[in-house]
Amino acid sequence: MIAITGLHKTFGxxxxxxxxxxxxxxxxxxxxxxxxxxxxxxxxxxxxGMVLPDKGSIILNGKAVKKQSAYRNQIQYLPQIAxxxxxxxxxxxxxxxxxxxxxxxxxxxLIERFGLQPFxxxxxxxxxxxxxxxxNIVLAFMFDxxxxxxxxxxxxxxxxxxxxLKELVLLERAKGKTILITTHIMQFVEEMADEIxxxxxxxxxxxxxxxxxxxxxxxxxxxxxxxxxxxTTA
Length: 234
Hints:
The chain is an alpha/beta fold. Helices cover about 35% and strands about 25% of the residues. It has eight helices and ten strands.
């Protein structure tokens, strides 16, 4: 589904992505991991067209995304920090996106799943961080797109909401969708990811399953495996 070749991006004198090569197949959950500043966000924003690489190509479903916009209708995105107008109510932001996308929408089932009915008439500015994140999750899943990108989706979620998010991700994977996730919660990755991609200084140091990484590092568990790969690349 996603084929990235020779992707390079520099901000000022700082290289953020360095001739990056990555292939993500159709269907599955793929975790993009790495420390802060490793290039995760730049990679995601390059796929979304929010950052223009200096060189290289990104192919989505056989078509180059450079200088295109229509392909974004094939993507649903949950940003790490969602900057929606705080004076809008939950219902207003949902309806605004429905009007902009003009596509079939399944917001009612998602609103019920995350218990947001009591908050529909409340302004975003009045909501707790966890409730805002539930709203962001509804916005990210309410359209039917083959590619879903979730940037730190677990932020602020209570245990019950986290379980519902996991169930939702698995439901979407079962439909044949591709889901990219960035997170610092290793337990979430271990439970959910079919494959992980470990980035450091704009380069890929590992791509494979959790089990493969543990075997490669001879680590007793996933957290130790991640720590081991970070140490070997230091």
